[in-house]
Structures are given as structure tokens and as C-alpha cells.
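Allow me, if you will, to draw on your knowledge of protein folds for a short while. I have a record of one protein: its chain in single-letter code and its fold written as C-alpha cells. I should value your view on which stretches of the chain appear to form regular backbone elements. Thank you for your consideration; the sequence and its C-alpha cells are set out here:
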Amino acid sequence: MRPASASRRDFLKTTATVATLAAVSNAHAAGSDLLKVGLIGCGGRGTGAASQALAADSNVQLVAMADAFEDRLTESLETLQKSETVGAKVQVPPDHRFVGFDAYRQLLDSGVDVVLLCTPPHFRPIHLRAAVEAGKHVFAEKPVAVDTPGVHSVLKSCAVAASRKLSVVSGLCLRSDSGYRETLRRIHDGAIGDIVTLFANDYRSGRWAKPRQPDWSEMLYQMRNWYNFTWLSGDFNVEQHVHHLDVCSWVMKEKYPVKAMGLGGRQVLTGPEYGQIYDHFSVVYEYADGAKLVSNCRQQPHTKGDMSVAVSGSQGRAELTERRRGLRIRSAAGEWIYDGPANNMYQTEHDDLFASIRNGKPINNGEYMARSTLLAIMGRMAAYTGQEITWEMALNSREDLSPSRYDWDGQPPSAEIAIPGQARFA
């Protein structure tokens, strides 16, 4: 959400000088000062992230909020104020409620220490860059980009954050689940031998759409229905399935596939109200050592759900789901089922973030959150084009999904539906 006169390409070339960054990043290491939080993106996930941030530290306040839409900000603020657990920590005066495409800039100038980036994914690279340049610690929801230029921007911003001792914590929440952590520890210790095949499923039932209103411009309509447009969400394979693709990257110790082929389309959700994104994807990724990742996801009403990862190794098999007793390993040594303590992974993300600020030991999730996002984008490219896409192709893609300008009367990118065999790789 940047000024209407700026393009993303121009914005990402801009360099800011912040003279007091070292002092800002270390100001709260002692653990006694008030940490001021700003929320950018006030939808359901943003509201949840704000609640978790406020619960993560005893001396923290939400002092500023920003969103493209005033009604979303107001709804979020009212929800947070009514919370029995964190409502007292919500101190957002009217002059710290910022609305519009440029709202994020106003928030960053309002005196906050920590920012929560929870807008539609398209804006993540822009907001992360600005937050790091302003010397803020960051919680960045997933995914962190919708195209390759955005991925590269995020990698650069996170490198700068590391040099300035700023924390950047990812919303890829499965990495914060205690059961997943223990299961992955065992896999990495060799419990199932060498990895041969991974299966990542994300089967869901339907998705939302908001009716077009007579006074809405095309930009406003697409922003209200951001999930259904590739330039804003990255498509379902990127926006949601990135969670399970990231688990696969975690299993593979951040080793990424060399190529991918796949398919996808609109089989059920075909109406214009569902924008341009697909309702199903199936992508097979191949690694340099011959291991394969079979990735399937769909969103179709009245269908059975399954969100899971299964890993086949040379000496056994691991299963990972969020269901109770859904984390298990089978091998010649027998069957192991995780029965340890459960945690709220969404809360743990913020607990870790605020602890890192207090103890002066920054967390930086930049590499894996950016590259797992690219893994998902690579799958979308393979499905949209119907061609084999290599990791190098995805990494060097010049496809930029930005509009020419950010304004309610501006023209968003094309809403043309990709047809495999006709859509071109860029």
C-alpha cells in the first residue's frame, strides 16, 4: 500500500537512511521498557496476530493500526478492545488509526517498535522493506510475496534486518508447533533414513467471495476480494498451501527441488465472483538426488478435508497432521506417536518474537520464509503454463504482478484466467 504515484519497481529501488537504527533495535533489550505494537492489515488474521502479540509480553501495547479499509480497521479494533485477555492493552487513539494505500507509512512514523504485517501477500515485500528501513522488529504473515521480484525484495530486506539486529519472525506457524518440532528432530536424526518421497496435501471445502457493489471501482472490488486474484493472494497454492510446502522444505533441511511439473484449473468454482484463481493444483517436484515431492491442494465445496504431510524414507515413514495423535513415525524400530505437550503455535510465534527483542538475540526467518514462498510460486508457474519449471527459472523470473499505480481509480493487473499450454512463463 504505497502512494498512488509510485510503482513497486521504483519503490523497491528506493534506499532510506535511518541514523538511529542501532539504538532503536536495542532499546528494549533490558526487558523493562514498553513495547509499542502497530498492526498493518486488520482482517481476521491480523486481529488474531495482534491478540497474540499483546499476550506475548507483560509490557506491551497496541498503539497504531493501518488498513486499506476503514470498516476493517474499526471491526478489528472493536474486537480487540472487547477481549477479556488483552483489551486493556489496546490503546489506539483516533489519530493513530490510518486508512488507505499509504496507511502503512503513517503507522511506521507513529512511534511503534514492532509491526505485524498481515495484509494480502502482495504488499508484504513493500511493507517489510519499509519496516526494516524504519528500524522496526517484524512479524510477517505468510506467504511473503506473490512473484519472484517480491521474493528477492524480501531476501534483501531480511539481510538488512540481520545486519541491524532486527527480528523478523514468519507466520509459517507449523514450525512453531511443539509436536512438529519433535517429529522433525527425529526425522533429521535419521529415524526414517534417507528421504525418498514427500506428499503434501491441502484439501479444503470452498472459499469466500464478496458481492460487487454498484459504487465499487475495479480496484476496490479486487481489493475486497483479494483472495480470488493472483496479484493479491498468489493463488491458493501460494496463499495457503505454502504451509505444507514449507514443512517439506523443513524436512529436506532447506534443500529445494530442481524442477517441477503440474496441473491445475477451475473445475467447480468457475463463476466470475471467484476471480481468476484455480480451485485445484497437483504438482510434482523433483530434487537433485531423485527424491520427489507430490503436492496436491483443492478448494471445492462439500468435499472432504485433509491437511497433512507424509514422508517416505529408506527406513520408514512419517506422518504429520494437526489432528490429535497425528504425528507419528513407523520404522523397523517400531511405531512412535507424539504424545508430548501441545502448544498454541500461533501464540508461540509471538512469544519467540518478543523474547528475542527482550533478550537482544534477534530471530531472522527470512531465508526459509522467502524460499518456501518461491517453492509455492514455482508450483503455480508449472500449473499455469503446463510446462516444466526449473528452480533457476523460478528464481530468475521477471514476472511482476504489480499494478501500475495504487489508487482506487487505478487499473489492477489483468484478471485473465491462466490456460495451461497458452499461458507463458515470464
Notes: Residues 177 and 344 are 7 Å apart (CA to CA). The chain has a mean pLDDT of 93. The longest helix spans residues 366-385.
